[in-house]
């Protein structure tokens, strides 16, 4: 006779409401396994696989639990001590602190690009490893990945533009994995009158009698407001008007003697999503700061940090979509209605396909952009123009797609998907962040055109993806269709880059994104042995790029199939 415990397990397994909690988010992702084998050297993949497996298991279990608890228990702010001393303190739930320890200390997500050894691997990790780990982590917790990205990006900007003295003094804390001593970073840019319009920055910077820089003014939206350091834009007194008068400063939370710097957290924001992570308003009251790089070049230097954060935004959007799609696939496989599994019903199959396409497009763009970043950081001058256009492309389109995918995936779960006990509401709320922070969709689409006009990125993009088509054993007709689509998307982009063409910026950015992601997926599928991935590439071209009759059933051309 079966034990009571065994009977209980059997009842859970047979329960009509499927619950995926506890399943690894890495082990069951076979497409990710194929892509890793294609993009990573075999020795590095073998070394990292246990770490991917561990994080995948955490993201599907304990980390997911912590994320839910932190989402339900957002940070709070106290402004004064009980004795009446002004001392703003952000109080984080222990669940969030535990996630900080996992991300920053155990897995080193913010530090690994700045260390010579991480997770037992000697030498610098390629960006792709960091982004794959982030991709897994964010499927459970999105909010914390914003401070992780800002910390990584701040360290990158400090190394690139900071004086040797600043780098030597502060970089060790950004390279540290010791949770008690490592530093977290932030960027304080946004003001009430200066959102994306940095030229309208009003925060002032002046030098005191000792030659130290002091900052005064209000910053309206500051995520991770109690970070150990923040990059801040401010206008130097007596400097040039507009962007040329804005400089970049490193702002410490604590001074050398341990006392608080002269700025206050006025309040925390009550946000739609990323509730686990604090965002607040800052008032600078003569705060000490250090000039980073050349005076008057603040916007150019901060743009490097922003672009790195934009890439991270795209990675996080891809992760959100993957989690949403995986949940929907699991439900469709496990749930039965009208005598059959949901996944066996034609309309559900089509719905799942429509969810998979943007999720897989974003995933391919993560791999392609991370590869371009590695080449650029490695000194390949030709890779920078490619990176420069791929970054806003993934930020623009993947972040917009995530909003729809998370919403439509929620529908697959049905009424339970609308309940906060499940992951769906959190994914949906968090997905809306990506299209707003580090540049709204309009701003980022215009940045695609800026890369075309200032960096000469378009011919580099065309050459790179044309080479992928040449390298992929595809049906000649399908390869020809990809090449023609790339040429047409490029012509549209050149038209948008002409004077008065700004109104076409979003259309051009979407066209480029859909075409190059289709090419990347076709190459990956052909080279990695995934016929399914080649099929997804064909669907992207058919449904997102080529003209079609909305009153006709779409069908992949027969001559696209034969290699």
- Helical content stands at 40-55%
**Strand percentage, roughly?**
5-15%
> How would you write the strand order of the largest sheet?
6-7-11-9-8
Number of strands: 13
Low-confidence stretches: 1-12
> Using only CA atoms, what is the Rg?
24 Å
Structural class of the helices, strands and pairings? alpha+beta
How would the global form be characterised? globular
Mean pLDDT: 94
Helix count, per DSSP? 17
> For the report, how would you describe the main beta sheet?
5 strands, mixed, barrel
Please write the string of helix (H) and strand (E) elements: HHHHEEHEEHHHEEEEEEEHEEHHHHHHHH
Distance between the termini: 58 Å
List the defining traits of the structure above.
two-stranded antiparallel ribbon; 13% strand; alpha+beta; 563 residues; five-stranded mixed β-barrel
